[in-house]
């Protein structure tokens, strides 16, 4: 009995050794690729490498099975048929999303942290993978969109250099446009917008529809700027005695003739900039992604600096060599510090991802 168990163990020993080796290689590869996420290995290439390594591991396990060569050939043929069937059945979604992911990566329409609008969805990009893209909405929710959806819908990306933000207001024909326009221009300026403008959109049956706005230079404060602009419009119009009510407005109460339906204005002051910014809480995950991306850009810049300094070592004097070596050492220490920060940030993101229901 003992000899039979020993012979069975020896028979399956190559398979067990190969299984252990595959698990170690896949675990180490996964750890290395996750640790270097966003720098040397992109999200799509990381997923493809892990899928390829898993496929190779399965083939190696089949080849080490303690069966005959004919049986191994049949198993490999069956495995090929299974993979072919899986790809054929899921080609409409799996392959289509993968190809759409390659297209988005090659076009480079957006980066992590950018504001995007796709169909009815609006938010900041937090994840850009092979099969899906994740955005964080204005309600702080995480929305997962298939890459195929992004390539078949009109994709709007807010430029990081600045974007126009505006609001609309309708006023009656009894208010002259040349009185309204300067007030709306002043409201846009007080809201902190550059190059303010005013447009008359429509001449309705009962009211004139105005549009005012300007360039928001800090797109990270886009939601706050929109709200600030609307506050400034209310303050300017009400401060000038202009009522923002419908021409069909009817109130059944008896009011004095001098009653004006407008709230007292609150003009911009120095304390305006200290008000709470909701973007820091709404787009918290997107902000973390942007900070990590900035750190990664710093690491790449420092690596290029080190390479440039090393290329100059042979062409300068000894004093300059000492100075260059000192700079190289400082840059190397800075890279190690940044990589430690990035690793901690990545670890926290993974914990949050696992804790998310």
Quaternary organization? single chain
The helix/strand class is: alpha+beta
CATH class of the largest domain: Alpha Beta
Counting H and I runs of at least 4 residues, what is the number of helices?
10
Number of domains: 4
Largest beta sheet: what is the strand line-up? 4-3-2-1-5
Radius of gyration: 31 Å
Q: Percent range for helical residues?
A: 55-70%
CATH fold descriptor of the largest domain = Alpha-Beta Plaits
What distance lies between the first and last C-alpha atoms, to the nearest angstrom? 50 Å
3D architecture notes:
- The chain is α+β, with helices and mostly antiparallel strands and 357 residues long.
- The chain folds into four domains: 2-89; 107-157, SH3 type barrels (Roll); 163-280, Alpha-Beta Plaits (2-Layer Sandwich); 283-355, Methane Monooxygenase Hydroxylase, Chain G, domain 1 (Up-down Bundle).
- It is 57% helix and 15% strand.
- It is built from ten helices and eight strands.
- The strands form two sheets. It has a five-stranded antiparallel sheet with strand order 4-3-2-1-5.
């Amino acid at each position: 009995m003992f000899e039979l168990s020993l012979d069975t163990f020896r028979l399956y020993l190559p398979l067990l050794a190969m299984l252990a080796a595959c698990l170690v290689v896949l675990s180490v590869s996964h750890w290395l690729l996750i640790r270097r996420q966003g720098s040397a290995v992109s999200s799509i290439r990381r997923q493809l490498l892990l899928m390829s390594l898993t496929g190779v591991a399965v083939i190696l396990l089949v080849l080490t099975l303690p069966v005959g060569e004919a049986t191994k050939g049949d198993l490999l043929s069956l495995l090929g048929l299974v993979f072919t069937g899986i790809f054929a059945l899921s080609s409409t979604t799996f392959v289509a999303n993968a190809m759409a992911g390659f297209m988005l990566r090659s076009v480079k329409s957006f980066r992590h942290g950018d504001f995007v609008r796709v169909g009815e969805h609006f938010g900041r990009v937090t994840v850009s993978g092979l099969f899906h893209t994740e955005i964080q909405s204005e309600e702080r929710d995480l929305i997962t969109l298939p890459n195929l959806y992004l390539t078949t819908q009109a994709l709007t990306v807010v430029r990081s250099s600045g974007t126009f933000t505006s609001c609309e207001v309708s006023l009656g024909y009894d208010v002259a446009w040349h009185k309204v326009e300067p007030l709306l221009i002043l409201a846009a300026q007080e809201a902190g917008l550059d190059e303010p403008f005013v447009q008359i959109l429509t001449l309705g049956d009962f009211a004139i529809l105005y549009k005012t706005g300007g360039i928001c230079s800090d797109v990270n404060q886009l939601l706050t700027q929109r709200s600030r602009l609307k506050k400034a419009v209310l303050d300017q119009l009400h401060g000038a005695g202009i009522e923002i009510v419908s021409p069909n407005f009817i109130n059944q109460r008896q009011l004095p003739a001098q009653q004006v339906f407008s709230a007292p204005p609150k003009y911009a002051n120095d304390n305006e900039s200290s008000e709470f910014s909701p973007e820091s809480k709404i787009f918290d995950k997107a902000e973390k992604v942007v900070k990590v991306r900035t750190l990664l850009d710093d690491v790449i810049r420092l690596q290029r600096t080190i390479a440039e300094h090393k290329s100059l070592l042979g062409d300068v004097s000894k004093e300059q060599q000492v100075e260059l070596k000192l700079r190289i050492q400082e840059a190397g220490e800075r890279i190690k510090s940044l990589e430690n920060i990035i690793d901690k940030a990545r670890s926290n993101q993974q914990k949050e991802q696992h804790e998310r229901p």
